[in-house]
Amino acid sequence: MKTLPKWIILICISIWMLVCLVDYWQYHQLQRLAIQQFQYGRLAAIVVVLSAALGFLGYRFKDQVARYVHGLSILLLSMIMLGLSVQAFMRINQGEPLPSHQLVQFLWSNLLTVGAVMLLVVSAYTAGDLLISCTRWRRLKGGYYLLRIGIGMILYTKLL
Fold first, then answer.
1. Which residues contact 152 (CB under 8 A, 6 or more apart)?
2. Rounded to the nearest 5 degrees, what angle is found at the Cα of 42, between the Cα atoms of 36 and 47?
3. pTM of the entire predicted model
4. How far apart are CA 133 and CA 73, in angstroms?
5. How confident is the model at residue 43 (pLDDT cuts 50, 70, 90)?
6. So what's the pLDDT on residue 106?
7. Sign of the dihedral through C-alpha 97, 39, 108, 69
8. Are 149 and 124 in contact (CB under 8 A)?
């Protein structure tokens, strides 16, 4: 069987995306109002530009940067950007930045949340891997990381 031309597939995808967007827009009035009355355009633009610049520099100098990019450095960069965003938000709305001890408390609570989610995902991966190794699915070669995590989450849901 011959496959469809790529341009037909792209047109169908575009039409389906438009239908989904219009349907969502129709049933979610509060989100539409929130987008229309968005007040933090400058802050969002700064974050987008900073992220794009870091992505471009990381791509341009990937050989020099590769040894520094790992989970801990990405987490540290995310926490720094989160702290800067909170400080900018507070300066815009309150006129003064958040006191340092409150900022540290906020970042610490976010770090604990990230750690809890990471623990949940790792334990779900382990449970899914254990279930796969006990079944005939063990013939699966390759990564299948998301499959293992998904099976682990399904197992947790069934147990709860």
1. 123, 124, 125, 126, 127, 128, 129, 131
2. 110
3. 0.65
4. 33
5. confident
6. 94
7. negative
8. yes
